[in-house]
């Protein structure tokens, strides 16, 4: 592949080699990404230009850049990047084509936000089908939020495509998602290379002392070495950042230009699209002599005009914009607004109008509010927040200003900018608020506090409680909704923090429901009167004709566990998955898939659990969030994988959620009981139970009893059994009765209890607990000296445990069987033992008859990537075809709808 030289690339051989290796791999169909990081002027843009020139003969090169002055127009940078590939738009499937058209504001509608990235992937992969593609993204630290998410998504999924992506970003301005991609820090030049670069600059003759001063001040920054000599070479009297000094150099060059050339540069700096048609039209509005002005501007080296107007460096554009007087900037934005099409680019027009406005303007504010609504519908939450904040600032009516500020705070929080949301709320004059508005402020402050760390997470529910209490008289129904919201938040914090109990205590004074007792009443009754009174009330609410739990599905899944009702849990999970798929809500489908995994763990279908976890992780990655941890904790615990459980425990502790930590303690107890390390199991189970969390306490009590009995802590075991019975007896389900009998057998040492447990558990889907109950019975028989009967039970338990994949308990069963004089037959593990979570999902879907394209849609991958995964799956499983996947019994039970 050819290379070219450039004066600002002195000393950059290693960086160039890394970039060329990336594009060579892409030319072989092995796509990849690299993020160049460094201070302004360090040479990132020069490296991008170099790799662009070096690959121009072989590659299609498409380019985009973030814009400091563009605001938060959703998908603006993604649109820039995709414009050259839009000729292939008609080759996409209809849903993807529609997603891109809506995201780019070219059609009405609400796209599925986390499918926009997949649609862009299909578009670029289609365009790269005949010729490899290089995607260059400069100023990535200024990308709009929606584009940053979509481009990060793209970068993670091009491994099987002939596409290379190179980003350049400032190292002090992290961009969510980009920081997780492969990166390369571009540092300052060595003294030798800096002198060599300075020697190449023939524009000025420098005194030796001036040269030494320049070298010291530039600290190896190439642009500083090139630009500062043009400004005389001396640093200003007071220290200032290199970027500011370079901008000053650009401003000095701009000051020497004719007036029209300066006005044209200001106009170009205010338009981030670089569209020359738009630029010339706006220049015409300002009576600029375009031929003369553009020639003078280009001659200065600050800008060049072609298919796009491009400044010589991002700092040059910044310098042009900052050098303008406020009136000049307003004039430029006004001209751009006048020539921007209101139909095809309404949001950009509204933004230009807002930047051109010097005082309150209700018409512009209303237009921005409309743009915010459109942006939010297109997934541009950060854009909506920016529009609403500006709309509030331009509002004439104090009431509308307050409403717009509150809306801006809400959307800013949704965009993840908690500090900015808090600042917006602080600007609201609470003395002027009515009761509902005051409650909204409390609710927002509670949500902000909740995500600001452990201390705030405890304070958040209390703030929402305050909102509920404010509304008690004015809006009783909404007040009760806020009480339930505080409950859900308290549930996540964990009962150990005392938040849940404070919420429930306050809920006793909540206004009564307008109809029959609801979820809030049932929870208060459970807390104040115990399980015998509370469980029937909960059951009526959760299983009645009015499925009110659909408003609080996360809480409903926990309560189904508290009721020991596996069928109700399955109903809620099915609703979550279907609703998530129908609405495209990432939060709903992720909750549903996590609960699918949990249900599958409880019922012993580990392959399905892995598949659901794999899909949830794919969606989490698509929306830029960390994956849910608790289903992985439950699965790893049951499989008995020490290292994985301990690693997940450490991660759960780092994340800091009380309930997540309780999950981790439960998982550790299961692990150590499986490994027969009972003192460690006792310690972990004690911690899990101490939290007092709904569902988790109940499911951890059997682990506590088993560990306590094995450690000879009889009083601890009996106390834990009493606590368990108090929960399971009112529930009365087969699950509850079977677990209780199995646990009671360990304390009573009575064979009748073992047999009762097996009878109950054999009638349900809980194969994990049935196999463990059979193991305990076999162990009891061996201790009683009934070796032949023990062998029969232990042999069956060993087979069941091995088939499910409970590795630690399988080894424990083998040890017990060996103690009876029989060696357990070795069994190969399930097929999915060799696969990753994502590979398991792909294998199960293909085994159920899904095409690569269908699987790709579900996992947000390209079909080519799915095929690459399939090749790995075939290799790991020792097969060669999709048909053979269908013949594997532990992969055949996949459900394409779940």
From TrEMBL:
GO molecular-function term, one example from the UniProt record: DNA binding
InterPro entries per record: AAA_16 (IPR041664), P-loop_NTPase (IPR027417), Sig_transdc_resp-reg_C-effctor (IPR016032), TPR-like_helical_dom_sf (IPR011990), Tscrpt_reg_LuxR_C (IPR000792), WH-like_DNA-bd_sf (IPR036388)
Regions crossing the membrane: none
Gene3D superfamilies: P-loop containing nucleotide triphosphate hydrolases, Tetratricopeptide repeat domain, Winged helix-like DNA-binding domain superfamily/Winged helix DNA-binding domain
Ranges in a coiled coil: none
Pfam families the UniProt entry points to: AAA_16, GerE
Annotated HTH luxR-type domain residues: 828-893
This protein's UniProt keywords: ATP-binding, DNA-binding, Nucleotide-binding
Protein name per UniProt: DNA-binding CsgD family transcriptional regulator
Source organism (scientific name): Amycolatopsis roodepoortensis
């Amino acid at each position: 592949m050819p290379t070219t030289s450039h004066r600002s690339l002195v000393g950059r051989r290693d960086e160039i080699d890394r970039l060329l290796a990336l594009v060579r791999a892409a030319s072989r169909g092995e796509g990849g990404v690299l993020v160049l990081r460094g201070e302004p002027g360090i040479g990132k843009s020069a490296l991008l230009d170099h790799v662009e020139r070096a690959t121009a003969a072989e590659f299609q090169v498409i380019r985009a850049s973030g814009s400091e002055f563009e605001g938060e127009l959703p998908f603006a940078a993604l649109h820039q990047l995709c414009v050259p590939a839009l000729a292939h738009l008609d080759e996409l499937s209809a849903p993807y084509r529609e997603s891109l058209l809506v995201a780019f504001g070219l059609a009405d509608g609400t796209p599925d936000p986390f499918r926009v990235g997949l649609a862009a992937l299909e578009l670029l992969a289609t365009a790269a089908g005949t010729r490899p593609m290089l995607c260059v993204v400069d100023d990535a630290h200024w990308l709009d939020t929606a584009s940053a998410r979509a481009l990060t998504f793209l970068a993670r999924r091009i491994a099987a495509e002939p596409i290379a992506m190179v980003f350049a970003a400032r190292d002090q301005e992290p961009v969510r998602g980009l920081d997780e991609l492969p990166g390369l820090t571009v540092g300052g030049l060595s003294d030798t290379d800096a002198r060599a670069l300075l020697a190449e600059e023939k524009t000025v003759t420098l005194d030796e002392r001036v040269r030494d001063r320049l070298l010291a001040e530039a600290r190896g920054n190439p642009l500083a070495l090139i630009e500062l000599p043009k400004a005389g070479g001396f640093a200003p009297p007071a220290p200032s950042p290199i970027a500011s000094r370079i901008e000053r150099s650009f401003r000095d060059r701009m000051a020497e230009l004719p007036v029209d050339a300066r006005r044209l540069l200001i106009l170009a700096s205010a338009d981030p699209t670089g569209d020359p048609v738009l630029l010339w039209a706006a220049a015409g509005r300002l009576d600029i002599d375009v031929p003369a002005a553009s020639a003078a501007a280009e001659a200065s080296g600050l800008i060049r005009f072609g298919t796009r107007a491009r400044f010589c460096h991002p700092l040059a554009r910044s310098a042009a914009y900052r050098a303008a007087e406020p009136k000049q900037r307003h004039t430029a934005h006004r001209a751009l607004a006048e020539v921007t099409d209101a139909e095809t680019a309404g949001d950009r027009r509204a933004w230009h109008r807002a930047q051109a406005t010097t005082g309150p303007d209700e018409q512009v504010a209303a237009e921005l509010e409309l743009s915010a609504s459109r942006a939010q519908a297109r997934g541009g939450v950060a854009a909506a927040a920016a529009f609403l904040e500006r709309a509030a600032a331009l509002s004439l009516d104090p009431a509308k200003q307050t409403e717009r500020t509150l809306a801006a705070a809400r959307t800013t929080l949704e965009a993840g900018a908690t500090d900015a949301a808090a600042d917006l709320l602080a600007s609201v004059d609470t003395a002027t608020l009515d009761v509902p508005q005051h409650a909204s402020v409390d609710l927002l402050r509670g949500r902000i506090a909740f995500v600001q760390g452990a201390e705030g997470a405890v304070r958040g529910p209390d703030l929402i409680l305050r909102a509920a209490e404010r509304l008690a008289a004015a809006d009783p129904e909404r007040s009760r909704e806020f009480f339930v919201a505080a409950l859900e938040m308290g549930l996540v914090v964990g009962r150990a923090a005392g938040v849940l109990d404070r919420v429930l205590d306050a809920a006793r004074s909540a206004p009564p429901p307008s109809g029959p007792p609801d979820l809030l009443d049932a929870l208060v009754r459970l807390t104040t009167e115990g399980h015998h009174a509370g469980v029937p009330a909960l059951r009526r609410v959760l299983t009645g004709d009015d499925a009110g739990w659909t408003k609080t599905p996360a809480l409903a899944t926990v309560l189904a566990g508290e009721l020991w009702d596996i069928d109700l849990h399955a109903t809620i999970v099915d609703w979550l998955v279907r609703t998530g798929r129908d609405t495209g809500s990432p939060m709903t489908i992720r909750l549903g898939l996590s609960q699918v995994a949990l249900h599958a763990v409880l019922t012993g279908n580990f392959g399905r659990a892995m598949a659901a976890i794999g899909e949830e992780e794919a969606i989490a990655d698509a929306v830029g969030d960390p994956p849910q941890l608790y289903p992985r904790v439950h699965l790893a615990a049951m499989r008995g994988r020490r290292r994985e459980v301990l690693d997940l425990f450490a991660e759960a502790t780092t994340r800091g959620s009380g309930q997540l930590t309780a999950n981790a303690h439960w998982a550790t107890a299961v692990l150590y009981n499986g490994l027969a390390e009972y003192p460690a199991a006792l310690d972990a189970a004690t911690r899990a139970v101490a939290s007092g969390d709904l569902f988790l306490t109940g499911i951890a009590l059997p682990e506590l009893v088993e560990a306590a009995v094995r450690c000879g802590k009889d009083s601890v075991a009996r106390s834990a059994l009493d606590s368990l019975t108090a929960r399971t007896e009112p529930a009365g389900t087969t699950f509850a009765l079977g677990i209780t009998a199995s646990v009671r057998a360990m304390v009573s040492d009575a064979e009748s209890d073992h047999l009762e447990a097996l009878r109950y558990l054999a009638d349900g889907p809980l194969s994990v607990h049935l196999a463990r109950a059979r193991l305990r019975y076999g162990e009891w028989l061996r201790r009683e000296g009934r070796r032949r009967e023990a062998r029969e039970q232990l042999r069956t338990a060993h087979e069941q445990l091995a088939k499910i994949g409970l590795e630690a308990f399988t080894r424990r069963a083998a040890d017990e069987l060996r103690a009876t004089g029989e060696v357990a037959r070795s069994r190969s593990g399930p097929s999915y033992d060799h696969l990753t979570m994502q590979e398991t999902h792909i294998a199960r879907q293909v085994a159920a008859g899904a095409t690569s394209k269908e699987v790709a849609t579900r996992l947000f991958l390209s079909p080519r990537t799915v095929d690459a995964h399939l090749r790995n799956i075939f290799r790991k499983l020792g097969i060669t075809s999709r048909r053979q996947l269908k013949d594997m019994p532990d992969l055949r039970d996949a459900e394409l709808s779940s």
